[in-house]
Design a protein that fits this description.
- There is one protein chain.
- The protein is an alpha/beta fold.
- The protein folds into 2 domains: about 130 residues, Up-down Bundle (Four Helix Bundle (Hemerythrin (Met), subunit A)); about 200 residues, 3-Layer(aba) Sandwich (Rossmann fold).
- It has 11 helices and 16 strands.
- Strands 6-5-4-7-10-15-16 form a 7-stranded mixed sheet, sandwiched between helices.
- The longest helix has about 30 residues.
- It is globular.
- The two termini are about 35 Å apart.
- Bound molecules: 5-S-methyl-1-O-phosphono-5-thio-D-ribulose.
- The site of 5-S-methyl-1-O-phosphono-5-thio-D-ribulose has 17 residues, from helix 2 and strand 9.
- 5-S-methyl-1-O-phosphono-5-thio-D-ribulose binds next to helix 2 and strand 9.
Length: about 350
């Protein structure tokens, strides 16, 4: 896949592949201001925890570029407000907070430097976050590939692929690396209502790269597993608590519970930057609630009575006991997760 996030340092424009329009239309969404970046994250033009983090880092570059003419104390205040707004555009994915916090620390460490120097440091940092994310995905992909049984059919939920990261993907990174070693593996992509990340995005990117993928309705999961059609599950994560409880796209919990029932291994693939050691259990992870119209409409077509209330929780939390292992760039973390996570993250 071509890079879907690219920053042009000459024009100071961030180009995003508009994920709302895939798979039918490949359209470029141009962000010239930090407000454009905030709009893109909120409206899921770009989505997926690591991809949001990378995008936000370039958003910080645009913010500083816009505010640079302000004198120093006013610049500090204005930047603080703008970065806070950017950070709160989606609450669940910790990578968004992580990337902005990283940029903030650069800003404060260069407090007395000329603004042009801080801008140059921001740009370097954003490019580094982007390049590092691809490297991490490739590493965890290789590590995870060794867990995939020969000839397995792997179920995945949502899109944790190149489109959800800077490139290569976390869950789909594991699948890509496994496929390179064993071309007999197959993938089942759950459609992932209501935004359809599975049917629109996972199927699009796996088919582009020639990997064998079959689409399934979310509610087919139990039946497919009961028929012995799934040997392994691999999903991504938006935030992992210190005890291993994992927030990921709504529906992941159902897949994990079914995998447990049918004795199918269930893996989470995520970079260490997705682990939030400040949050002790999944109960403390904020869960985004989105516009009910995303559930009630398909594009511009209503698919339910217009006035019916609808739940639209964007994520759920899988308790750690249903997770066989968390695949990271430093190895596969296993239970007891408090200990394995503390060792991996805090040394
Ligand atoms: O609402 P989304 O599409 O941003 O949700 C994305 C997911 O839940 C992904 O599985 C997760 O961010 C991991 S992406 C590598």
């Amino acid at each position: 896949m071509h890079p879907h996030i690219s920053f042009d340092r000459h024009t100071m424009v961030l180009h995003l592949l508009d994920q709302r329009k895939l798979p039918l239309i490949e359209a470029d969404f141009c962000c010239k201001t930090v407000a454009d970046v905030q709009f893109a994250i909120k409206n899921m033009i770009v989505r997926g925890a690591p991809a949001i983090g990378v995008t936000a880092a370039f958003g910080c570059v645009l913010a500083l570029h816009e505010l640079a003419p302000l004198p120093k104390p006013a610049l500090d205040t204005a930047l603080h407000t703008v970065l806070y707004n950017l950070e709160t555009s989606r609450p669940t994915a910790i990578n968004l907070h992580w990337a902005i916090e990283h940029m903030r620390s650069i800003y404060y460490s260069l407090a007395h430097a000329p603004v042009e120097d801080i801008l140059a440091a921001f740009l370097d940092a954003a490019y580094n976050i982007q390049a590092e994310d691809i490297r991490i995905c490739e590493t965890l992909g290789q590590i995870g590939a060794s867990l995939i049984p020969q000839g397995a059919t792997i179920m995945t939920h949502c899109n944790a692929g190149a489109l959800a990261t800077a490139g290569y993907g976390t869950a789909l990174g594991v699948i890509r690396a496994a496929y390179a070693k064993d071309p007999t593996i197959k993938v089942i992509a759950n459609e992932t209502r209501p935004f359809l990340q599975g049917s629109r995005l996972t199927c699009y990117e796996l088919m582009q790269d020639g990997l064998p993928v079959t689409l399934a309705c979310d509610n087919a999961c139990a039946f497919l597993m009961s028929k012995g059609l799934v040997q392994c599950c691999v999903v991504g994560a938006d935030r992992i608590a210190a005890n291993g409880d994992t927030a990921n796209k709504i529906g992941t919990l159902g897949v994990a519970l079914l995998a447990h029932h049918f004795h199918i291994p269930f893996y989470v693939a995520a970079p260490l930057s997705t682990i939030d050691t400040q949050v002790t259990t999944g109960a403390n992870i904020p869960i985004e609630e989105r516009d009910p119209n995303e559930v009630k409409m398909l594009g511009n077509t209503p698919i339910s009575p217009l006035d019916v209330p609808a739940y639209n929780f964007a994520f759920d939390v899988t308790p750690n006991e249903y997770i066989t292992g968390i695949i990271t760039e430093v190895g596969v973390l296993t239970a007891p997760y408090d200990a394995s996570i503390a060792k991996a993250c805090l040394g």
